[in-house]
Design brief:
CATH architecture of the largest domain: 3-Layer(aba) Sandwich
Radius of gyration: 21 Å
Helix content: 40-55%
Largest sheet: 7 strands, mixed
Length: 408
């Protein structure tokens, strides 16, 4: 018997980073040394004091018992205290805070908790894949909000048709943005989104996972700093990037108490939450010394500058972002006829460099590539040299465009 996937799952192609990993293994098998700048998986170490807290917690028998979906009260209080220090926002730790097994899980489960079959979600495009895929898997219908370069990769909410606005159950926003690295210079987009929510009744889900990875004096806002936002919005965070704890799987959502209550109820049927010993480490991360975040920002900024400079030497001009851990750039002229996926495939298999094709983040990402700053500067420079050799091997105008396989 061959199991038949659900229609929801069948709508989705293979997950982007699974596909890139498969290509990496193929390239390694052919003897290539790999420089992997595909997935945004931090290579910096988790803070020493957090690792120590985990080690101590693992030695306590109670931490091995089932956790509760709502998380430890001490963790919820630590999240609320961090929010107060960082954004000057006051949260009820019992009603407006929910720990998550990473923000990716929380976003997908939010859609499952709130959507009826066929209900729509306003999704930016390009976007982090779960912003789109999570809606499909919940039985919902993504309605794309294009993020265009000429609009600084921000959606134009005025262009959303009234019918689509009335039907939307959720609007998703994400700044600092993955994959584009775009930031909000002021709160005007957040204020417009909240006005949209008041008019049409949709929940605003704000993905703020990169709020702490900022450069050049930039400070990322929280949507909950805008007056009245608590009635209309939830905000997602992750310890993955800020504290280099991607593999630990710990994040949180805060904001509208009713939405959080529904998400907690849904999760209660499916998971037991974060292991207690990881929650203890998370408490230490949020409440302990924060100097490792500043150090990480210095490292990523230096890597950003090194890669921007190295790419410029091979004729690939990319504006340096002021936040997140990615470069997002349009393909050089001589590579554009290949398309982003074919470019990525050939770059991996012929030169051993993994970067993410823009089309993997949605149709409006076609023609762009995303570089993750997850390698030391010398490796970034070597990656740029290999990319330069690949570009030189291409004809000045590729004779035809191969239609790439669709990815998610």
């Amino acid at each position: 018997m061959k199991p038949i996937p659900s229609k929801k799952l069948s709508q989705l192609p293979p997950y982007l980073f699974v596909r890139l990993h498969q290509l990496r293994l193929q390239a390694e098998g052919s003897g290539l040394s790999i420089i992997d700048l595909g997935q945004g998986s931090p290579d910096l170490p988790s803070p020493d004091h957090v690792v120590k807290a985990l080690q101590e917690a693992v030695g306590q028998n109670w931490t091995h018992r089932y956790p509760q979906t709502q998380g430890l009260p001490e963790l919820r209080r630590a999240i609320a205290a961090w929010y107060r220090r960082r954004f000057d926002v006051t949260l009820d730790a019992d009603r407006q805070v929910l720990p998550l097994v990473g923000s990716k899980e929380g976003l997908a489960h939010l859609f499952m908790a709130l959507l009826e079959p066929g209900q729509s979600v306003l999704v930016p495009n390009p976007c982090y894949p779960v912003h789109y895929n999570g809606v499909i898997l919940a039985g919902g219908r993504p309605v794309l909000m294009p993020l265009l370069e000429e609009n600084e990769f921000k959606p134009d909410l005025r262009k959303i048709p009234a019918a689509a606005a009335r039907q939307a159950k959720v609007m998703l926003l994400n700044y600092p943005n993955n994959p584009t690295g775009a930031v909000l210079e002021d709160n005007s987009l957040l204020e417009e989104a909240l006005a949209f929510s008041r008019k049409y009744g949709c929940l605003i889900a704000y993905d703020n996972a990169y709020s702490e990875l900022v450069f050049d004096g930039y400070q990322a806002p929280s949507i909950l700093q805008v007056p009245g936002a608590m009635e209309h919005a939830v905000e997602f965070h992750s310890l993955s990037k800020s504290y280099s704890m991607a593999g630990w799987r710990i994040g949180f959502v805060v904001g509208n108490a009713e939405a959080i209550s529904q998400l907690a109820k849904f999760k209660g049927f499916l998971d037991y939450g974060i292991p207690n010993f990881i929650q203890q480490a998370g408490i230490n991360a949020l409440s302990g010394p924060q100097d490792t975040i500043a150090a990480a920002c210095r490292t990523y900024r230096s890597r950003r500058d090194a890669l921007v400079e190295a790419l410029s030497k091979i004729g690939w001009t990319i504006a340096p972002p002021r936040a997140a851990m990615y470069l997002w750039g349009r393909l050089p002229e001589r590579a554009r006829s290949l398309g982003s996926l074919a470019f990525a495939e050939r770059l991996i298999l012929e030169h051993g460099v993994v970067i993410a094709p823009g089309v993997g983040f949605g149709p409006h990402g076609e023609g762009f590539m995303r570089f993750s700053l997850v390698a030391p500067e010398e490796k970034l420079r070597e990656a740029a040299r290999r990319i330069g050799r690949f570009l030189e091997s291409l004809p000045e105008r590729s004779p035809s465009r191969r239609k790439p396989a669709k990815v998610g």
